[in-house]
Amino acid sequence: MEYLDGEPYLGIVHQGSIKEASSSTVIFLDDASSTNNAYDNMLIKIVEGKGSGQVRIITSYDGTNKEAILDKEWDIIPDNSSKYKIVRRVVLIRGWDSRNDRNGDGWVDDNEFANLVNPKATARFRHQSRLVYTNAWWSGANWNVANVWNPNYRRYVAEYIRDIYQSSKRKGFYIDDITANGLGSQWINRHKATKPAVIKGGYIKEYTKGRVDEDSPTNEDWYLGYAELIREIKRISDLTWIGGNIANSNPYTNKWLKDYLHPIMDWYTCEDTLHNGWAVNGWGD
Ligand SMILES: [Ca+2]
Questions:
Q1: Residue 245 pLDDT more than 60?
Q2: Which residue spans within the chain are E strands per DSSP?
Q3: CATH topology of domain 2-92
Q4: C-alpha of residue 123 to centroid of ligand 1, in Å
Q5: 279 or 97, which is more confident?
Q6: Residues of each domain in the chain carrying CATH 2.40.10
Q7: Beta bridge partners of 251
Q8: How far is ligand 1, taken at its centre, from the CA of residue 231, in Å?
Q9: Please, are residues 206 and 147 in contact by the beta-carbon 8 Å criterion?
Q10: How far is the CA of 95 from the centre of ligand 1 (A)?
């Protein structure tokens, strides 16, 4: 993954003066967040005073003590003369343009890269533009299914899934969280509060209607492709059923289930609907 300093795109999360620092920690003044983990995975940039110009990643943050643990030691340990900015990181997804691969051997070598036909497309390999890391719900769900508009891509994903299930002799295929992170969700999602947002760019070659997070029908188009992908799995495999978890969604009113997935799914589980406890926790259980 390639991460960039997010300040030009998203501004500053917090800035201030350092209280004290050690070789791989920083303690902020009281104006920093009192919430644990508030700055996890963000960058701290020393912008004035001792140690200016250094950048580190905050791996964890203790809101009680206002203390950040860093990914690696400072070259020069900042002190209370140092001012800092905390900023988010953004992911750079390089674009692919087959014209840049002049000899058509599948990758852009150094000579081709030095003379790009399309300088906006800087991926060396096509796949760099095809899969997008979006979250770490669990290790197997980090990659979302992006280009469901490409039949070759659908076929590849379907074969990959088929081979996993066949090698383990399983007869059915279960998708956990079918409308969200099971087989993947839209790699660009319009609900920007909870999903990654596209800051710049965001075009998929096979999707010709425009930038995928701004064009209103994109979600519907994505679900059509997603449904096609599940059909493809059924078509090329000998799996006898495909089931999925729909959490607390209502299959008869939820638009995505009713219109797109209901016709091809064999059954659902509703893990958040039936409970044996009286309390509801953050998971709805
Ligand atoms: Ca080449």
A1: yes
A2: 2-5, 14-21, 25-28, 43-48, 55-62, 67-70, 83-87, 89-92, 132-133, 143-144, 172-175, 241-245, 267-269
A3: Thrombin, subunit H (2.40.10)
A4: 12
A5: 97
A6: 2-92
A7: none
A8: 34
A9: yes
A10: 15
d(CA 157, CA 151): 10
User: What pLDDT, in 10s, does the model give residues 80-112?
Assistant: 999 999 999 988 889 999 999 999 999 999 999
Q: For residue 122, how far is its CA from the centre of ligand 1 (angstroms)? A: 13
Distance of CA 195 to CAs 107, 124, 181, Å? 31, 27, 11
3-state secondary structure of 101: coil
Q: How far is ligand 1, taken at its centre, from the CA of residue 117, in Å?
A: 12
Q: How far is the CA of 102 from the centre of ligand 1 (A)?
A: 6
Average pLDDT of the segment spanning 236-250? 87
Kindly give the distance from the C-alpha atom of residue 93 to the centroid of ligand 1, in angstroms, as a whole number: 20
What's the length of the chain?
285
Give the Å distance between the CA of 129 and the centre of ligand 1.
Answer: 16
pLDDT tens digits, 114-133: 999 999 999 999 888 865 55
CA of 125 relative to ligand 1 center, distance in Å: 9
CA of 152 to the centre of ligand 1 (A): 21
Instruction: Output the CA 118–ligand 1 centroid distance in Å.
Output: 14
* CB-CB contact of 14 with 35 (8 Å): no
What are the pLDDT digits (tens) for 152-180? 988 988 898 889 888 988 888 888 777 65
Nearest to 187 by CA among 224, 152, 222, 230: 222
pLDDT in tens, 25-55: 999 999 999 999 999 999 999 999 999 999 9
Whether the Cβ atoms of residue 89 and residue 42 lie closer than 8 Å to each other: yes
The yes-or-no verdict on residue 189 having pLDDT over 70 is no
175 contacts 245 by C-beta, under 8 angstroms: yes
Q: How far apart are the CA of 130 and the centre of ligand 1, in A?
A: 18
